Amino acid sequence: MKKILNDIDQLVEDMLNGMVAAHPNELKRVPNTTVLTRKKSPESGKVGLVSGGGSGHEPAHAGFIGDGMLDAAVAGEVFTSPTPDQVLEGIKAADTGKGVLLIIKNYTGDVMNFEMAAELAEAEGINVKSVIVNDDVAVEDSSFTTGRRGIAGTVLVHKIAGAAAMRGAELEEVKLVAEKVIKQVKSMGVSLSPCTVPASGKPGYSLGDNEMEIGTGIHGEPGIERTSIMTAQEIASTLFEKINHDLDLASGDRVSLLVNGLGATPLMELYILNNSLSALLKEKQIIVVDTIIGEWMTSLEMSGASITLLKVDDELEDLLLEKADTVAFKRGV
Amino acid sequence: MKKILNDIDQLVEDMLNGMVAAHPNELKRVPNTTVLTRKKSPESGKVGLVSGGGSGHEPAHAGFIGDGMLDAAVAGEVFTSPTPDQVLEGIKAADTGKGVLLIIKNYTGDVMNFEMAAELAEAEGINVKSVIVNDDVAVEDSSFTTGRRGIAGTVLVHKIAGAAAMRGAELEEVKLVAEKVIKQVKSMGVSLSPCTVPASGKPGYSLGDNEMEIGTGIHGEPGIERTSIMTAQEIASTLFEKINHDLDLASGDRVSLLVNGLGATPLMELYILNNSLSALLKEKQIIVVDTIIGEWMTSLEMSGASITLLKVDDELEDLLLEKADTVAFKRGV
């Protein structure tokens, strides 16, 4: 294992400190926790948005703290849910009296710990609601999940719910729009090479020299098929077909795209994949209203990419295109 | 070799089309060239900024097209300089009558082809000046270079010269501020694993299971030393010492940092590296006025990172912090 780090036991600590050192005007730590929050508290009267989960998916989630997205992010150890007491600290940091929405990726540990934290916060008088993102169409049930996994589509939930909260929506409204996104956002990925969890020191799985896997999870959970390496066109078409089995897009429908690198895939290849995908959508007369491309929900140094499609209506498109100013994602300068 | 692509011969073409498809309101292609330029021409009366070089370093350089940075970028084949006729097209696309500054990374092919293009443009009546970035302190002379190589520090030249041009500076002034940056910006990197140029199909070099190289170039050019894997602290300290041999920073000096991933290194590790580096600078009472962290000047899927330090004065700091709105880099929402 070759990684740039100091002490494996201090990895998350060092990362969080390194983030605050890099973005001292945007981020601060809640002392003695793994919670990052805004440097300046949002005005009271805004619903707070909190997300988080295991580390190793950076910039998710702390990179999305800022205007128009999240108010706090809770980091667990690599690929491990943060504990309820940490999530509780995140909720407290984000609450300005108008309640907090938790955006949880659908993994058993995350769901359990975030919901336990919600109960603890409710007991302290904070109004908390939560939504669970399960955008990965690859498999039902998996190593760490009952039902579908939550992957890169989560970033679009942050974006749209964050815009609604920034505009002053009430907690119940923010929750409803987040649920609307979750219903319409579908993702799937391919992996070309695995990642290595630092504490284990070994790749989570292996792939042959000319082999790839379709539908791998962001923690290396098994996908649905191994095959020899496909072209960008074949990958775009395979992932689109599986996603569209659920979305059932018709000519004239509008979508937002997110093409996501898993960690080690050059941006060049993501653009080539986007070229194939956008040609395919054009052929089907599906209208792309927005494309976000880069590394947003990574899996350490896994090589591969995922495609996310969100079917938008006027409300979702408007919120999606609203400005945002976070560490990792900025829009509307 | 496992990469997401269609046809190796169409790689740059597919990438450029994929970029325009992703950013249709920001970028357009100059037909029948490998030039990307702004979708909307900048107002006349602004000095044009053009950069480019071999592909494989994305988001450099086309990702930096937009307000406050570049007006056009010229893409060559992977790790291969674009030809003079292509660069000429870039110059024409960026010129609004106030002249064009070429920002060239110091590689023999780039310098020759960009300067030949400048002559061709001058012959057509366009006022062209150029600057050559040579920020890599690792080695003098290398596989493709006489003198020092140009690497990630180039992005800070784009940023600062771009801000000056946006504010209405004349060509000569923009050139002077670019040269001031070049004088004060120093970089060096480490590689943990190599990249594979698609046309060759094989990694450019090999490193042992526990081995890293200090000072590798962004095309895989040899560095100065191979060693067993160092900690983040050791990497930060080794690179800083070499950089500071040139910059000669003293307590109270102000710097801007750029921590750059080479392609396959998780953002987590870049933040850990930044944590070590910023602690070291704090100890030396060097003031960090700005930190830019992520993948800005990559080497396909090379694993590793580079550190760039720019010693700033009031003028450079002010221009650095000016707003920018490009595909890959946004500031000042």
TrEMBL record, chains A, B:
Chain ranges of the DhaK domain: 7-329
InterPro entries per the UniProt record, alphabetical: DhaK_1, DhaK_dom, Dihydroxyacetone_Kinase
Record-level GO cellular component terms: cytosol
Pfam family, one: Dak1
Keyword annotations of the record: ATP-binding, Kinase, Nucleotide-binding, Transferase
The EC number(s) this enzyme carries: 2.7.1.121
Gene Ontology terms describing biological process: glycerol catabolic process
Name this protein carries in UniProt: Dihydroxyacetone kinase subunit DhaK
Organism: Paenalkalicoccus suaedae
